[in-house]
Task: structure prediction
Amino acid sequence: MEGLIHIYCGDGKGKTSAAVGQAVRSAGAGFSVVFVQFLKSGDSGELSSLACVPGIRLVPCERCFGFFWDMDDEEKREAGEVYGALFERAWEMAVREAEKGDALLVMDEAVAACRHGFIKKERLLASLAGKPARLEVVMTGRNPEEELLAAADYVSEIRKVKHPFDRGILARKGIEY
Result:
């Protein structure tokens, strides 16, 4: 099977849920799945569920930095180092799995991590261009840059029509995280 590149983007709720669904579907079909999250705390319900699915390997991030707009310059520098290393670790794991058979790499919030410079765009694009044939890649996040859109085979935009956050209702455990 020839692996393709997916982007789930937009301002609506469901980008990560779509990526989780793809991970479960792929694992159920015998793929090796590598799942990594950027810019998130690592304590979400989807990660707890994915940890129970045979064939899915989670790549943990040793530190969460919170929202980009809340970071000072030092935290942004540190985040770049941590997220850059996290990308490299996840990419290498996925490439090794693709050498053995069909594999899926899900990089949740990689689009935002790239947009903020935490994952170097040139490195990400080079990796995508040189990916193994049996590696499928899913990336999520808002506002993908044109170069990422051009590299993708699938681009699905999830648009917000209405969201409780607009009424001041914060993220709820088990629903939004």
